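Structure first, sequence second, as always.
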């Protein structure tokens, strides 16, 4: 072998070593995009939008197909993901529920520790909304009505450990009020219950509420956020409304089954980093009033521990029984 051949071989080896890890893996068939809500839920809406962006921006060589695995307050989807160990063509949208539910549910067989963290994407504020023709103009109005008729007012929401119910529990503890919580598997059902007059109030993400607020079907009476959102400058946060409770963050991102190689994780990590930098995604964040919370896999693994500890404390303060 001559010197020229040795130089070419060395150059090729160097090029391969310098190539990004994700270049060693690319999906070869449609990727299953798992969500724990039914159609219309926050995770479902987010996953379907991301799948559209990935296709529109040509970010991946295959399609991403949403698979709704609702039930059990997210536990059904979590078990489904955990049991797909080693599957390189399956990812899932996680939310704060995936971290809090196992804290209070003895039947939870799996936690995010049984999955592979890929990327954190957004931090979401929330809105406290009532039907547009409801008599409640402010959060105080609803609280006072609940005090006068304990247990008769109703709130629609997700699982019992979702942000919806945690906010309810904290408010009831702070005020002495009491109202019922009706759990629904999907966001569409929760909204329908409010608009149909079957419940009186709900805590809802801006992306789910937007069209109903614009159509004049919903009224926002408070915000679950540290500061007022640009789209609702005249609506107070819960603290501004006079209720000193912790702000309960909602977080969303991507996990996948355990047992996958580092280059597989690196591929999806890079995919969602590229997605987060597109103009389409940035416009979506602005319209939905989300906070860009992109975080890589290694950082996300640490975040899971910090967030879980924080929510464990909040759940205890809200009066929930914590089992982990």
């Amino acid at each position: 072998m001559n010197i020229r051949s040795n130089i070419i071989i060395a150059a090729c080896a160097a090029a391969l070593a310098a190539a990004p890890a994700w270049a060693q893996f690319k999906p070869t068939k449609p990727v299953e995009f798992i969500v724990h809500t039914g159609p219309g839920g926050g995770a479902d809406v987010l996953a379907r939008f991301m799948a559209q962006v990935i296709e529109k921006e040509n970010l991946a060589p295959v399609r991403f197909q949403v698979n709704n695995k609702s039930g059990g307050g997210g536990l059904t989807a979590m078990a489904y993901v955990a049991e797909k160990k080693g599957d390189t063509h399956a990812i899932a949208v996680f939310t704060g529920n995936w971290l809090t539910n196992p804290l209070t549910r003895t039947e939870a067989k799996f936690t995010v520790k049984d999955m592979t963290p890929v990327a954190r994407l957004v931090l979401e504020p929330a809105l406290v909304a009532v039907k547009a023709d409801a008599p409640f103009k402010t959060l105080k109005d609803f609280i006072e009505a609940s005090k006068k008729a304990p247990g008769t007012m109703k709130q629609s929401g997700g699982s019992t450990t979702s942000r919806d119910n945690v906010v309810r529990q904290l408010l009831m503890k702070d005020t002495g009020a009491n109202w019922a919580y009706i759990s629904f598997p999907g966001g569409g059902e929760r909204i329908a219950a409010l608009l149909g007059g079957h419940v009186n109030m709900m805590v809802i993400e801006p992306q789910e509420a937007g069209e109903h607020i614009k159509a004049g079907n919903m009224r926002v009476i408070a915000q679950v956020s540290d500061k007022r959102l640009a789209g609702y400058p005249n609506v107070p946060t819960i603290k501004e409304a006079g209720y000193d409770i912790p702000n309960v963050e909602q977080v969303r991102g991507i996990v996948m089954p355990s047992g996958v190689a580092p280059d597989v994780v690196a591929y999806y990590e890079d995919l969602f980093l590229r997605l987060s930098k597109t103009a389409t995604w940035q416009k979506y964040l602005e319209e939905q009033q989300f906070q860009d919370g992109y975080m890589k896999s290694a950082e996300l693994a640490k975040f899971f521990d910090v967030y879980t500890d924080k929510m464990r404390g909040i759940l205890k303060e809200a009066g929930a029984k914590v089992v982990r």
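Margin note: The chain is about 40% helix and 20% strand.
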